[in-house]
Description:
- The protein has one domain (about 15-245): Umud Fragment, subunit A (Ribbon).
- By secondary structure, the chain is mainly beta.
- Strands 1, 2, 3, 4, 12, 13, 14 and 15 form an eight-stranded antiparallel β-sheet that branches. The protein has a four-stranded antiparallel β-sheet with strand order 7-6-5-11, with no helix packed on it.
- The chain has helices at about 10-35, 235, and strands spanning about 35-40, 50-55, 90-95, 100-110, 115, 120-125, 125, 130-135, 150-155, 160-165, 180, 185-190, 205, 210-220, 245.
- The longest helix has 23 residues, at about 10-35.
- A hairpin with a 5-residue loop joins strand 9 and strand 10.
- The radius of gyration is 22 Å and the shape is globular.
Amino acid sequence: MTVKVEAKPTGLWENIKVIAQALVLAMVIRTVLFQPFTIPSGSMMPTLLVGDYIFVNKFAYGFSKYSLPFSPDLFSGRIFSSEPKRGDIIVIRFPPNPEVDYIKRLVGLPGDRVQIIDGVLYLNAKPVPKVPDGTFNSDYAQDPGQNVPVFRETLDEGVSYETLDQSPVSRGDNTREFIVPEGHYFMMGDNRDNSLDSRFDVGFVPAENLVGRASLIFFSLGNDTSFREIWKWPTNMRWDRLFKRLD
């Protein structure tokens, strides 16, 4: 009688399967759940700093083609969609060039009338309260400097956040009235005098261009420190920003 012996998988094959499964899991998490982003500019100071590494919640507003790697044109609009809230910090695809990611704060919902008058944000003809809240010192070499005036804005929904106002006469301090069309949003950076946003080239952002809501700072390096410069981490780590929630 012949006994058939089933060959056992080799250790190498088992390792390959584990690696493949880990890669698939990582792709699913990145595509469907959370995606890491790095903050490359000062447009969201003081809320987000250059050198912050954040997780973006990609299922917060449902999914569009921009939720997928390489943005395949498989469908239009959003699926499993839910409405973003005024005050959310959102990663968007830059409407004139959707290959580029921007991160801004949502201030205008569909149907809202948005205007800046003498540096004050008006929503539907009502000024958003803006009160002095100290000064800000940057450890970023290019922007925005030292002792920059900070102002706290509070929306009707109760969302409160800090903004920077470096100059009372910048080109974005007085604008026309913008009426946000259906299916679009009006975005602004918290660093009001140094942000390309819906006041300028970004324009109204289609719902399809929302990538996800910024939810957590998981790592942060100051003084223009590259992630690769591990030897500089101990002295340039912003320890107080690690695992900071973004509400």
